[in-house]
Amino acid sequence: MKREIKELVDRGEMLPLMEEFYTIQGEGYFKGTAAYFIRVGGCDVGCHWCDVKESWDANLHPPTKTDSIAENAAKYSDTIVVTGGEPLMWDMNPLTKALKDRGVKTHIETSGAYELTGDWDWICLSPKKTKLPLQEVHKAAHELKVIVYNKHDFKFAEEQAAQVGEDCILFLQPEWSKKDEMIPLMVEYVMKNPKWKMSLQTHKYMNIP
């Protein structure tokens, strides 16, 4: 990467853009609603079950002017979801400013492993055991979404729930390859612990991105 481009990326004025698309939010609190997704490359959290491992290497994705990303996104929807990868590896302030200047709502999906930057209307924290969230992200999260891969993840979910704010909405979501095995256990768990809600990757059932 050329030095001048790297400097722009380091400042968040360019971002390694993996993909962008207009679709229906499939997960969590806003499931079923239209949203424009911006997927930013780069992640070192390293979940073995990640379904977008091609996002991990930021060098595979072209540095793109942040203002151009925002300009394009605002054409499609008034709700923009920034995801990854791990978007907080990059300075999100320029992107959210550009989006806010265009009058749209800003959502982020993050593991919380990096400093919280950007101006967000909704923060979905999806914590991972391999690289735990920072306390500031726990406290700022509007939604906690814990992926359930095995029985031990219920304990991890409770540990994470103890660190978020009292108004944070709590979701358990089965890892897709384990859904048939884990959903019955999750249903039983949520019925016994009704502070939790179930989340499913409904976009996969609908065969949409």
**What is the global morphology?**
globular
Tell me the structural class: alpha/beta
Major sheet details = 9 strands, mixed
Rounded mean pLDDT score = 95
Radius of gyration: 17 Å
User: How many strand elements?
Assistant: 9
- Helical content stands at 25-40%
Summarize the structure in words.
This protein has helices spanning 3-10, 66-73, 93-101, 135-140, 152-161, 179-192, 202-205; strands at residues 14-24, 34-40, 63-65, 79-83, 105-110, 122-125, 143-148, 169-174, 196-198. The protein has a single domain, classed as Aldolase class I (TIM Barrel), CATH 3.20.20. The chain starts with a helix and ends with a helix. The mean pLDDT is 95. The protein contains seven helices and nine strands. It has 209 residues and is an alpha/beta fold. A nine-stranded mixed sheet has the order 3-1-2-4-5-6-7-8-9.
Brief characterization of the structure:
The chain is an alpha/beta fold and 209 residues long. The chain is built from 7 helices and 9 strands.
What is the topology?
Layout: H1 3-10, E1 14-24, E2 34-40, E3 63-65, H2 66-73, E4 79-83, H3 93-101, E5 105-110, E6 122-125, H4 135-140, E7 143-148, H5 152-161, E8 169-174, H6 179-192, E9 196-198, H7 202-205
Parallel strand pairs: 2-4, 4-5, 5-6, 6-7, 7-8, 8-9
Antiparallel strand pairs: 1-2, 1-3
Helix pairs in contact: 2-3
Keywords: 4Fe-4S, Iron, Iron-sulfur, Lyase, Magnesium, Metal-binding, Queuosine biosynthesis, S-adenosyl-L-methionine
Family: Belongs to the radical SAM superfamily. 7-carboxy-7-deazaguanine synthase family.
Organism: Pseudofulvibacter geojedonensis
